[in-house]
């Protein structure tokens, strides 16, 4: 059976690293390239983080492309230190001084356009960060979405609960205009793993301990980058996730990647039009579900609501059993 072709667009923080390793471990997936965008860290740090993950997993043949360093329009929020200032927990000391030479010269958006045009109707695009690169792609080629097989997004929210603002999820809040453009103009099959979906299908901290304490180089890498990160500490002060959903371990980007790898991991979803609020003083960046068709949009999205957490757990465990460097 032919492998599923995937492009990963990422702002590589710790959960992105987990999602990338999940894709690399999946036997039915071929990663054509990884495009980088600002978000969890500067785009320069994101590129270095992706290269580090590929090195750990001995998959350095996969090309890495540098993309957008800021939002489509206007000023961005200050970069989050949720996963440390570098996006991977501020614990990596052996930084690669040659990293820039290992990043492709082609811009990420141009690479997106080229790789999809070369594999028309075959590529699944998995977006794990702010959607700036995707918005620029559709601006350069309005027919780009029609050439995709499908699109998987980790981002947005469904209940008006925010994790960085009162009402908006991080990826959409970092570039609301790009999120708006993508959800309006990408008419390919679109699947959204929202913030609340991930939180409502969280895993236990006992599972997290099992995950990172496997005796493999990949697991040791994950244990290291989560070791000093408050987002991976059950002893840290309560955050918005714990307040709304109770204490749990959530590797956010892994939910979108798991759905791309095996759609049976999504047990229930809602198919409806969605739109991103741009004007609200409090609600800017919030995703709104139009289940009564008041917006009269011609494109819907499949918004995930229930996950097979047993399958997800198995995929996470497997993702840290990759053949890796000692």
From TrEMBL:
GO MF entry, a single one: hydrolase activity, hydrolyzing N-glycosyl compounds
Signal peptide span: none
Inosine/uridine-preferring nucleoside hydrolase domain sequence ranges: 6-312
SUPFAM superfamilies to which the protein is assigned, alphabetical: Nucleoside hydrolase
Superkingdom: Eukaryota
Record-stated family: Belongs to the IUNH family.
The protein, known as: Probable uridine nucleosidase 2
Lineage, highest ranks first: Eukaryota, Metazoa, Chordata, Craniata, Vertebrata
